[in-house]
Amino acid sequence: MYYEKTFLIISVLLGILFYPVDAQQRIVEGSNINISEVPWQVAIQTKGVFNGGGSILAPNLILTAAHVVEKYTAKEVKVGVGSSKYSNIGANWYSVSNIVYHPSLDIALLILSRPLSYSTNVKAIDILSANKASYYNVGNILRVTGWGITFLVIDDPFKEWKMSDDLKKVDLPIVSNSTIGAANSFVITYDGKHSPSKGDSGGALTIWDSSLQRHVVIGTVHGNPSTQRAYCAYVRSSSFLDFLLPYYPISITGGSDQVCSSSTFSVSYPNSTVTWSCTGPLRITSQSNTSCTVSSTGNGPAVLKATIKSGK
């Protein structure tokens, strides 16, 4: 199954069911991590109050869990970036113009009102590579980060829960979904001691791909799928790539809006198949999955299109 969409590249004038993370979960003995190591990590506020995490997918696109924002309008949600300390986010809060919900999974996309400016501490993470089956092998060690609570006091009902001001990390192994009867749309982690905490919902579960030399987000923190607190479920990224694709921007480089002889255009869209076509006095002289070279065959308007197919 795949999603297919056709994009206008140039128009030229030629001749010129699980429960969300609750208070029973926590990061125990999680360690501090600098935002520069996980620059895709964002904090999410609802009505001015911290309510979870998320991941930068593109300058104007944030991935989070639906249950983090579902009770709020887009105007009531803000996204904070670029700081290891929550209290130091300061002016780096971005408004949200629209929220798009997956029809059946605990996934939401936040469309920002203005694009992020990338830096050492603010960068996107790869999600389009997440359909690689080996990422989900039992035993793989994955990383979760967030500002969720770091303690649990069961015998004190009056204890005030407090989030961590410092960004925390914990590394956890994948276990078989059959261990707790979880659906295939989830990734399950368990080590008997550690787990994401209340406030970590919506954050990324990531794996390091040494061949790509980058991190890939393969899950989004969802919640506790069992009565055993150390198990945690994450919505599996490969289960919603088709949903994501229409909102994911394409990076187009090179080329010109006026072609007198020839021009080359490149499209960056990982793990997808790109086919090229043109109309009008335009001829494709060479093409690949990432680029296309065209030449003029006369005068007048013409269109070059790239059709992208992505999926399993």
UniProtKB/TrEMBL annotation:
One of its GO terms (biological process) is proteolysis. It comes from the Bacteria. SMART domains: Tryp_SPc. The keyword Disulfide bond applies. SUPFAM superfamilies: Trypsin-like serine proteases. Residues 27-249 form the Peptidase S1 domain. Keywords: Disulfide bond, Hydrolase, Protease. GO terms for molecular function: serine-type endopeptidase activity. InterPro entries: Peptidase_S1 (IPR050430), Peptidase_S1_PA (IPR009003), Peptidase_S1_PA_chymotrypsin (IPR043504), Peptidase_S1A (IPR001314), Trypsin_dom (IPR001254), TRYPSIN_SER (IPR033116). Pfam families: Trypsin (PF00089). Belongs to the peptidase S1 family. PANTHER family: AT26814P-RELATED, POLYSERASE-RELATED. This is Trypsin-like serine protease. It comes from Parabacteroides distasonis.
